[in-house]
Amino acid sequence: MASLTPSSTASTSNLSTASILQPSTKEPSTTTPPSSSTDPTGFSFPPHYSFPPFFTLQPTLSTRQSQLSSWSTLLQSYCRHLHIFTLSLLDALETPLFYNRTLSRRLSLRDARAVVDYMCSEEGGHRAEWILASQSNSSKKGSKPASDDEKTKLYIFWRRPEEWATVIEDWVDGTGQRGTVLTLYELAESDVTKKEEFHGMEEELLRRCLGVCVKRGKAQIFGAEGEMGVKFF
Amino acid sequence: MTNPTRRTPGLSSLSRTTISTSQYASHGASLRSRQTETLATQLSVFQSLLHEFSITHAKDIRSNPSFRAEFARMCNAIGVDPLVSSHHVSDNEKGKVKGGRYGGGSWWAQALGSTVNDFYFELAVRVVEICRETRSENGGLISVPEVRTRVQKGKGSIGSGIDSVSDDDIMRAVDALSPLGSCFSIMKLGHNMLIRSVPKDLNEDQGTVLEALQVMGYVTVSMLQVNLGWERARAMAVMEDLMADSLVWVDRQAEQSEYWSPAFITGG
């Protein structure tokens, strides 16, 4: 999959998916290009999304930087809206996020990778991180450059782990649960946290955020894989 | 009898002419001074009324764009510019009227309780910020409506009192920057007003292409060849230049590369 050249992927599946597979999802308002289009999910896309060249990474460096930063903002707000913590890049390419069916313009795999690479960088504010198979068990940042084939899944940090740590600490504080042992399942999946932003967070990421709390001396983690608990103090 | 100004014969007419001339002159002088007095009174009354008006309606001037535009139009009609600093005004006629009472500071700032002045200067600062923020995106060319949208959207973040503004306000604010010798200028392309914040001159070809962009939305190299009769190389070169200045973005997913102007990303 990933070894296909991005441009051919884009142009061939462009036709098939748009006209045959998903004619029903097409917006009825194709004739009036809206300044900010909305998604079935209720997400309202920024004006850039209706600007066809936005889907071609610009050759001019300064333009490209500004474009990458706009894409980064879009990705973060989209994931925040849908409450997504991880993205599978290949799947995401078919979603409205990267594929504007109204304009029949889409971001190619290669360009999407460039966007994510930018978000991972210092300049992009570390707003994303590739999840590489080789280091899935550690929470270390990518120490060696990964090949493009490995770059398929990623975290979108619409909040950085440090920010999440604060959010969780505040929640524990606000609900008076300091000193209580909470399981990771309780934190992420139980009804109690249903309204919280961190609800539904994958365990891997949650452990990492809690790790920040531990480092700050605000919490302690118990137990083994699968049934871990955390106590805040 | 038929001609009232006909000369009377004799020497006495000489002295009579002198007398009447001097009488005319003195009468004229007294008329003139009376007129000046009346005007001065009128002007001072007007000033105080305008002052009162601007204070009573300070809120409207700030918050209501159409009211503000009317106010500005009124000021224009009577030949005063709310934005001109006092150093001009008070040195010339306004200073004489009040005997330099409004010496330092802006005459308008005092007369209008700083309302109008501050409003436009605040707005100008916002406009400069927006132009700078978006420069890498649009190469320093941005449409006035786009700036207006952004001013309105960003009002909360800087906590300024800019509630609602019109395109007219934006352009006035840009004009207010000109005494600073700034490079901000208003450009008219087609029927769109744009703010140019990079003082680089566009050559004729680039101007033509930008104008075409306003009309067509986008251009391609072959469109330029067909419509303007340009050589392919010439059209390519112009687009390359515009792209290098971030003035156009390229869309390579069309059949032929399309070039779009980011000044209209909002598409307002």
Automatic annotation (TrEMBL), chain A:
Gene Ontology terms describing biological process: macroautophagy; protein transport to vacuole involved in ubiquitin-dependent protein catabolic process via the multivesicular body sorting pathway
Main subcellular localisation: cytoplasm
Source taxonomy: Eukaryota, Fungi, Dikarya, Ascomycota, Pezizomycotina
Family: Belongs to the VPS25 family.
The protein, known as: Vacuolar protein-sorting-associated protein 25
GO MF annotations, alphabetized: protein homodimerization activity; structural molecule activity
UniProt keyword Cell inner membrane present: no
Origin species: Delitschia confertaspora ATCC 74209
Chain residue ranges for the region called Disordered: 1-42
Keyword vocabulary terms for this entry: Cytoplasm, Protein transport, Transport
Gene Ontology cellular component terms for the protein in this record: ESCRT II complex
The organism's place on the tree of life at top rank: Eukaryota
SUPFAM superfamilies, A to Z: Winged helix' DNA-binding domain (SSF46785)
Record bears the keyword Cytoplasm: yes
InterPro entries: ESCRT-II_cplx_Vps25-sub, ESCRT-II_cplx_Vps25-sub_N, WH-like_DNA-bd_sf, WH_DNA-bd_sf
Subcellular location: Cytoplasm
UniProtKB/TrEMBL annotation, chain B:
Single GO BP term: protein transport to vacuole involved in ubiquitin-dependent protein catabolic process via the multivesicular body sorting pathway
InterPro entries: ESCRT-2_cplx_Snf8 (IPR016689), Snf8/Vps36 (IPR040608), WH-like_DNA-bd_sf (IPR036388), WH_DNA-bd_sf (IPR036390)
Subcellular location: Cytoplasm; Endosome membrane
Pfam families found in the cross-reference section: EAP30
Matching SUPFAM superfamilies: Winged helix' DNA-binding domain
Residue intervals passing through the bilayer: none
GO cellular component, one term: ESCRT II complex
Keywords: Cytoplasm, Endosome, Membrane, Protein transport, Transport
Keyword check for Protein transport: yes
Membrane topology value: Peripheral membrane protein
Keyword Zinc-finger in record: no
Quaternary structure and partners: Component of the endosomal sorting complex required for transport II (ESCRT-II).
Similarity comment: family membership: Belongs to the SNF8 family.
Function statement: Component of the endosomal sorting complex required for transport II (ESCRT-II), which is required for multivesicular body (MVB) formation and sorting of endosomal cargo proteins into MVBs.
The protein, known as: Vacuolar-sorting protein SNF8
Organism: Delitschia confertaspora ATCC 74209
Organismal lineage: Eukaryota, Fungi, Dikarya, Ascomycota, Pezizomycotina
